[in-house]
């Protein structure tokens, strides 16, 4: 599976914005907190529409705005807003759009801190339900006061897919907004807005940044929704992406197509190898999806990223920590989507029952397959798997 020519062209697109006259090929970093105006009347006019004028860098900034246009184009959305982190974007969507008395329905395995935020919002009178089964009947769980269906597909940890067309057919009929965390697929491998989703959220910290040197987030959707999120979720909560951070994310975007193709190639070779390994009980990744998910993979994804989970046959804490500690190429750490291979696991001494209650199988280890050679990665995994035998 591959990246479309249109997306390649967008990622390679030249800087367009103020100061482009000298032909700067890299986006200028507008390292300024404010923008002075020639007259008081002009100042007043621009301040009345801060979402489309450069007034103050907590609102908009030319370097950040260029990144926003690039992301909106890649997701085929009208508008985008960037944030200081993925959680900043998620907080702005929930905090900016919801009010006391609203209900949110979460579908599939959702990023842990997102659910923690949902629990925090109970203090402000926002209720929620979590449906971890990606095939659950969403309509059955919609309430009178459901304002938002929030989905992750592929989902966190088990990477299962939700039928997005079927889901949005229901939410559109019922007049409920939908948002998706599209971080796993990047804007290249899944276009949720084309499948009827209203808002796409990204953690730019992962593949889009791609170099493990910046945090960022984005929300993409209709101009109207993004504008509402700008005035409430962004301006009032203040999770701002700086111009310097935007220039780092833009540098990541330039090579996103080639990096994603290499992550994909490496990940598929790693998965093929793991599936055949006697110490591995299962691999969780859309490429290794069980039968029914197969049709969804074809209908929704145009490529695979390099984040996967494997289940060790010996799911004990000792086996997991022995395996993780034996890895050399895969470094131990949080996050994913950078050039480097990473390993992490939710398994801790004595938490098997709690993980089971959350639907997480024993011995689950998450790998972010980086850009080292697949042979090197497979050898590293083989050596570490031998330790668990
Ligand atoms: C990392 C991550 C986030 C949060 O992004 P940050 O940039 O770390 O705040 C949200 N969703 C998913 C799926 C993630 O992996």
UniProtKB/TrEMBL annotation:
The protein's matches in Pfam families, at most eight in alphabetical order, are given as: Cys_Met_Meta_PP
Extract the coiled-coil ranges from the record. none
Name of this protein: Aminotransferase class I/II-fold pyridoxal phosphate-dependent enzyme
Q: Which keywords belong to this entry?
A: Aminotransferase, Pyridoxal phosphate, Transferase
InterPro entries recorded: Cys/Met-Metab_PyrdxlP-dep_enz, Cys_met_metab_PP, PyrdxlP-dep_Trfase, PyrdxlP-dep_Trfase_major, PyrdxlP-dep_Trfase_small
Query: Could you tell me which PANTHER family the record lists for this protein?
Result: CYSTATHIONINE GAMMA-LYASE, TRANS-SULFURATION ENZYME FAMILY MEMBER
Answer whether the UniProt record assigns the keyword Transferase to this protein.
yes
The coenzyme or cofactor needed here is: pyridoxal 5'-phosphate
Q: Does the keyword Transferase apply?
A: yes
Any one Gene Ontology molecular-function term assigned to this protein's record = transaminase activity
Q: Which family does it belong to?
A: Belongs to the trans-sulfuration enzymes family.
């Amino acid at each position: 599976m591959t990246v479309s020519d249109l997306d390649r062209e967008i990622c390679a697109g030249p800087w367009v914005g103020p100061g482009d006259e000298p032909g700067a090929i890299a986006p200028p970093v507008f390292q300024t907190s404010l923008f002075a105006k020639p007259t008081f009347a002009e100042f007043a006019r621009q301040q009345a529409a801060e979402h489309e004028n450069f007034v103050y860098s907590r609102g908009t900034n030319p370097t950040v705005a260029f990144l926003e246009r690039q992301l909106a184009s890649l997701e085929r959305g009208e508008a985008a807003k960037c944030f200081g982190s993925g959680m900043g974007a998620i907080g702005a969507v929930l905090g900016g759009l919801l009010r006391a008395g609203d209900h949110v329905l979460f579908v599939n395995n959702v990023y842990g801190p997102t659910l923690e935020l949902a629990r925090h919002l109970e203090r402000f009178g926002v209720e929620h339900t979590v449906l971890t089964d990606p095939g659950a009947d969403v309509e059955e769980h919609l309430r009178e006061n459901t304002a938002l269906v929030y989905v992750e597909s592929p989902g966190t940890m088990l990477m299962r897919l939700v039928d997005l067309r079927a889901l949005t057919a229901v939410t559109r009929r019922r007049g409920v907004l939908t948002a998706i965390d599209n971080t796993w697929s990047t804007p290249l491998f899944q276009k949720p807005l084309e499948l009827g989703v209203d808002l796409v959220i990204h953690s730019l910290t992962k593949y889009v940044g791609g170099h493990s040197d910046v945090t960022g987030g984005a929300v993409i959707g209709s101009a109207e929704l993004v504008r509402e999120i700008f005035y409430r979720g962004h301006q009032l909560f203040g999770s701002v992406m700086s111009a310097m951070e935007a220039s780092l994310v833009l540098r990541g975007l330039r090579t996103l197509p080639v990096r994603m193709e290499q992550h994909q190639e490496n990940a598929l070779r790693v998965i093929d190898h793991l599936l055949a390994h006697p110490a591995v009980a299962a691999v969780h990744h859309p490429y290794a999806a069980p039968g029914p998910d197969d049709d969804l993979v074809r209908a929704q994804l145009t490529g695979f990223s390099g984040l996967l989970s494997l289940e060790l046959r010996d799911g004990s804490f000792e086996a997991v920590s022995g395996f993780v500690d034996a890895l050399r190429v895969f470094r131990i750490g949080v996050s994913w989507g950078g050039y480097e291979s990473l390993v992490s696991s939710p398994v801790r001494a004595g938490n098997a029952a709690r993980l089971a209650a959350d639907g997480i199988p024993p011995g689950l280890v998450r790998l972010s397959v980086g850009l080292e050679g697949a042979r090197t990665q497979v050898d590293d995994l083989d050596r570490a798997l031998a330790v668990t035998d």
